[in-house]
Amino acid sequence: MAVQPGDFFDIPYGPLPTTGRVQLDGNKIVSANAEVRFLRDEPGVNDQQANQIRELLGKDLFPFLEQNEQRFVTLNITEGGGVEHSQEVSKVWQLSNEDRSVTVTLAPLAVNVQVLNYLHFQESLAGIFSLALGAYASTTNATIIQRLGLRYINRLTDPEAKRPEFWSSVLSSNFSGPTAGVLGSFLQGARQQMQLRLEPTVGAVVNSVIFQDSEMANAFSCLVDIDVFDERATTFESKNISDLTRKLNRTAYGLFAETLTNEFLGGLKNGSNIGKDGEIE
User: How far is Cα 114 from Cα 220, in angstroms, rounded to an integer?
Assistant: First the structure.
């Protein structure tokens, strides 16, 4: 995960084409998440440290600090065909801003930032993620990262989408699935998942869901859920992680563009290049 010169971090991972930065008008990102996971032998976070991190980020910015439980259930199939399960419970601390549109979750071995009112990558997500991660690392002395990820949930709407097959002319052939087939006129909804390996340690999961949307007078809307991640272990260094997050962001946008037809994607574009730190992706 060494830093590369030039515009390396503006190029998506894998075979995805490099695209100019554009502002998208008509695509609503309902949730944007950035997350780092540390190695298991790294020190975790406790009550005192959670308060210290909040102090570093600013109590005015994050007036709410709440503690919750996070449960992990592991299932294992035995040789005799039985199922064994184990459960791990850990404490997490959630810092939220005044309207709870931004939440920083501090887990024993992870930091997650969720943004509900997403506008631009740099000002909406990257900035606060960098601050939160830096505060966590300096407070807990965690140094080894084992996973870096971004997740965007995009909501596409159109009042003319009275049937699910409407989206067969919007989604690219890679993602249109049954909406473009002989069963398209019978659909009441659709869900598709693709798991991708873009590079040896870089992967993505893309889910597309077509559903009847009560907020759109029961027209059918489409969710495009994109999760991109790099699972190489690396030592925490703020500039390096910031660059790698930017590259994952370019990858997420490249995947989003691949889910749509060129015609529909062109209709979402509002203007041309709007600058290095002002993209909506």
Answer: 26
Element housing 30 (H / E): strand 27-38
Please provide the DSSP assignment of 211-228 as one string: EEEGGGTTEEEEEEEEEE
Nearest partner of 139 among 45, 29, 252, 73, judged by Cα: 45
Rounded Cα gap, residues 32 and 137, in angstroms? 22
SS3 annotation, 180-195: HCCCHHHCCCEEEEEE
Burial class (CB in 10 A: 0-12, 13-18, 19+), 95: buried
Give the range among 76-85, 111-120, 256-265 with minimum mean pLDDT.
Answer: 76-85
Task: Give the angle subtended at the CA of 107 by the CAs of 103 and 108, to the nearest 5°.
Answer: 160
The enclosing H or E element of 15 equals none
How far apart are alpha carbons 133 and 126 in whole angstroms? 10
CA–CA dist 125, 113 (Å, integer): 8
What is the predicted pLDDT for the residue at 275?
32
Task: Give me the residue label for tokens 């590259």.
Answer: 247
